[in-house]
């Protein structure tokens, strides 16, 4: 009963929170004074970036746990989080240029450190997933993939602090105590958007882990049948 109630609550949150976030973004928050309506991309852009960063933190933590314990569940969590993180980074890399074009006059500025470090993060974990797909049945390969997952996370703080270390176009402060003066409605909409994206992230990770568990079971059954047939 408790699990059923939690599952029902999870589905309700997954269905309701994104709708609330969309309503707040498009119907409640005022237009930003200088950027106008295009600034509404901000809520999807930042929320997706936060979920991507969380994904790669989980990849790092799960990879450490896998190296220490060797338990398959941690490897599954690292894989699910890496795939989800790459997907959210795609959203970041699409919404960013769409926002930049009317504001900066260009879709992409190669001199901007945050743009480059984010692109590097996406490329790194995309390669990680390609390599890992070839090692899924090789324990030594999976341990090496765990090391790659840990190393890849090092780019996350670089992305985050890049606007402070090598500031070019990206604003160094948007939210927080040193933020750019967000309207209270904007701050609330951003918070709801981040929570909604977090719920979507969690649902995707759980479903991806379940898929990997099913795959392992099928593979185990196939080996057993082959053994019996032989």
Order of helices and strands: HHHHHHH
Q: What is the C-alpha radius of gyration, as a whole number of Å? A: 20 Å
What coarse outline follows from CA principal-axis ratios? Answer: globular
| Parts with pLDDT < 50 across at least 5 consecutive residues | 175-179
Mean pLDDT: 85
> What share of the residues does DSSP label as strand, in percent?
under 5%
**Measured distance between first and last alpha carbons:** 44 Å
SS field, number of helical segments: 7
What tags apply to this protein structure?
230 residues; mainly alpha; 7 helices; 0% strand
Description of the structure:
With 230 residues, this protein is mainly alpha-helical. The protein has one domain. The protein has seven helices and no strands. It has helices spanning 2-28, 41-69, 72-104, 113-133, 139-153, 155-165, 184-229. Helix 2 packs across helix 5 and helix 3 runs antiparallel to helix 7 (184-229). The chain is globular.
SSE topology sketch:
Layout: H1 2-28, H2 41-69, H3 72-104, H4 113-133, H5 139-153, H6 155-165, H7 184-229
Question: Summary?
Answer:
This protein is mainly alpha-helical. The protein has one domain. It has 7 helices and no strands.
């Amino acid at each position: 009963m408790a699990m059923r109630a939690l599952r029902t609550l999870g589905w309700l949150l997954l269905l309701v929170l994104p709708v609330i976030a969309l309503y707040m973004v498009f119907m409640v928050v005022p237009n930003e004074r200088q950027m106008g309506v295009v600034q509404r991309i901000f809520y999807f852009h930042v929320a997706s970036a936060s979920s991507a960063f969380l994904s790669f933190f989980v990849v790092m933590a799960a990879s450490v746990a896998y190296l220490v314990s060797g338990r398959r569940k941690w490897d599954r969590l690292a894989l699910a989080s890496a795939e989800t993180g790459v997907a959210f980074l795609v959203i970041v890399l699409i919404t960013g240029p769409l926002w930049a074009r009317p504001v900066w006059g260009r879709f992409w500025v190669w001199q901007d450190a945050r743009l480059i470090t984010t692109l590097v993060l996406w490329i790194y974990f995309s390669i990680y997933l390609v390599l890992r797909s070839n090692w899924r049945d090789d324990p030594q390969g999976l341990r090496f993939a765990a090391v790659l997952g840990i190393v890849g996370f090092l780019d996350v703080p670089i992305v985050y602090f890049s606007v402070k270390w090598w500031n070019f176009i990206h604003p160094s402060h948007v939210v927080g105590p040193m933020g750019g003066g967000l309207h209270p409605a904007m701050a609330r909409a951003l918070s709801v958007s981040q929570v909604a994206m977090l719920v979507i992230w969690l649902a995707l990770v759980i479903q991806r882990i379940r898929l990997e568990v099913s795959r392992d079971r099928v593979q185990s059954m196939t080996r057993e049948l082959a053994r019996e047939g032989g």
